[in-house]
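Standup notes, structure subgroup. Blocker cleared on the 5,10-Methenyltetrahydrofolate input:
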Amino acid sequence: MPAQLIDGLALSKKLRLQIAQQAQALSEQGLRPGLAVVLVGEDPASQVYVRNKIKACEEAGIHSVLQKLPAQTSQQELLEHIAALNADASIHGILVQLPLPKHLDADAVIEAIAPEKDVDGFHIASAGALMTGLPGGFWPCTPHGCLQMLDAIGCELRGKHAVVVGRSNIVGKPMAMMLLARSATVTICHSATADLGAITRQADVLVAAVGKEKLITREMVKPGAVVIDVGMNRNAQGKLCGDVDFEQVQQVASWITPVPGGVGPMTITMLLANTIESAQRAAGKK
Ligand SMILES: NC(=O)C1=CN([C@@H]2O[C@H](COP(=O)(O)OP(=O)(O)OC[C@H]3O[C@@H](n4cnc5c(N)ncnc54)[C@H](OP(=O)(O)O)[C@@H]3O)[C@@H](O)[C@H]2O)C=CC1
Ligand SMILES: Nc1nc(=O)c2c([nH]1)NC[C@@H]1CN(c3ccc(C(=O)N[C@@H](CCC(=O)O)C(=O)O)cc3)C=[N+]21
Ligand SMILES: [Mg+2]
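Run returned:
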């Protein structure tokens, strides 16, 4: 029996309706939630992603501001823009689209964002809150979206073996922390992992967040596993595809996310949710 699809578009649609209601309730109190998206340079993929984020805000009734800065923007100029957004009471979330041009220090830019507006969840204050389980901060949108999908299918995580392939600060590492917080037994794999397949084959829940087309093949997946594909790659035909060989792996998995239509839309949904959360905190509601 082929795997069932975890439909990130359908789940997003449902969640964004709730988010739109929360945005409206806040707006009626004169506290319209606001997101600022900062895009430096002309990277075509980034332009598409940013446009999708702005469109999602509009549809949810969230105020959005797009700041497009030239590729030659200096570190200091960018930091000045961040400082202005930090001080702007109409803005509850600040997202600096990554990657930044090479001459800019992305880590320093992220740390310059006011932690209470860090709706991407990339600031060390957010990372620390996630790691300790202490309140405050925001959970990074991509792994949080993955967790929401696992919850939506009723996947019990306690005592299960979850394997995360990839250890970036924005996806793999926070994903592992979220699964650990749910009492899964977590293994993190990366480029130096010896015999990746031997480890992924033990996974009840497998999350692939690498950026390599068809890295995860059928032999690497335990029959009945739940497979979450975070990868966003362009194949030789220019088609969007994940890290999982979907055609093969859907024959052994119990559940699988498609690309497109899986983790991507959920990432944007969690960005909207974090922006609402930030506005609610600012309103002193929480
Ligand atoms: N759907 C969405 O919303 C999003 C999708 N993405 C996509 O997810 C993927 C991962 O993104 P991101 O975390 O930023 O990527 P990074 O490039 O920052 O991290 C990739 C990770 O994969 C590991 N890796 C590389 N090669 C292998 C290998 N052969 N076997 C095992 N591990 C390997 C790296 O290991 P090491 O640390 O040792 O180098 C690294 O930890 C990309 O395709 C990206 O486009 C990202 C963000 C959001
Ligand atoms: N500060 C910052 N925050 C991010 O969250 C961030 C970032 N920088 N840089 C780039 C990555 C990537 N990312 C995606 C979000 C949604 C889709 C998405 O909606 N994908 C659609 C398809 C889109 C298409 O067709 O191209 C889907 O999977 O169905 C993809 C990728 C967020 N990122
Ligand atoms: Mg990266």
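Discussed briefly. The chain has two domains: 30-114, 141-264.
Next: hand off to the docking folks.
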